[in-house]
Amino acid sequence: MTTPRPDGVVLAIDTSTVVCAALARGGELLATGRVDDTRAHVEALTPLISQLCQQAELAMSDITEVAVGVGPGPFTGLRVGVVTALTVAELAGTTARGVCSLDIAARQHVLGRTASSPAVDEGFVAVIDARRKELYWARYDADGARVDGPFVGPADELPDLPVVGPAATLLADDPRVIDATPLDVAVLAQLAATFADAGLEPLYLRKPDAEVSTSRKSALQPGVRLSLTKRHRQDSATDASSDAPSTGGGQA
After folding, report:
1. Per-residue confidence of the chain (252 residues) as pLDDT tens digits?
2. 84-92: long-range contacts at Cβ-Cβ below 8 A with a sequence spacing of 24 or more?
């Protein structure tokens, strides 16, 4: 893995929720952007990165590190994010590293806290929308270090702790919600080296909706058996007779 440079240019990507990316050099944010469409990852991510490079007056080859959120999140979104990160890293002659997307949300909350923010002495929970009326979540200590998770499940399975993260908006009147800020990957671009490496395997946490069957299935209705009609049996017998070798005398 490439050693991070203090003055290097970091590209950060996350597609666990919407499409977002950011560029930073030496901890200074150069450009950031997002496309608020949870189903446009394929079409939106690469143009967004190109737009940010133009805005920061950088070429793709100027990027020295790529950091990508690996979820948890939806299958298509995470695959697009990781593949794009690997592709950009290859083009730039560097490497990519993965970060848990919930860790980004947790760090956002910690950095955004003020003197008037609710206390989180016993820690907090960060949440991302998992759809199907479920949440991806992980538990963090007061400083934003992950102590448990990530998991997926309904909201009533969350620990009785303050809740932060982009999916906190789904918990309508829940008094535990203290921060529902959308995920901002700028914090990853600025502080990439301080995040725990999560590898580049997407954190799906559950099986896909559609799976390839590994068993054979009959096209017949239950209880229905194939049978040849009398005509078919006669034809088959005739064909077999004509194909049989002759037992008569050979050519003189």
Report:
1. 556 666 799 999 999 999 999 999 999 999 999 998 777 778 899 999 999 999 999 999 999 999 999 999 999 999 999 999 999 999 999 999 999 999 999 999 999 998 889 989 999 999 999 999 999 999 999 999 999 999 999 999 999 999 999 999 999 889 999 999 999 999 999 999 999 999 999 999 986 554 444 444 444 444 444 444 444 445 555 554 555 554 444 443
2. 84/13, 84/45, 84/46, 84/49, 85/11, 85/13, 85/200, 86/200, 88/11, 88/49, 88/60, 88/63, 89/63, 91/60, 91/61, 92/60, 92/61, 92/62, 92/63, 92/64, 92/66
Helices (H) and strands (E) in the chain, counts: 5, 10
Q: Strands 177-179 and 163-164: what pairing?
A: parallel
How far is Cα 103 from Cα 118, in angstroms, rounded to an integer? 20
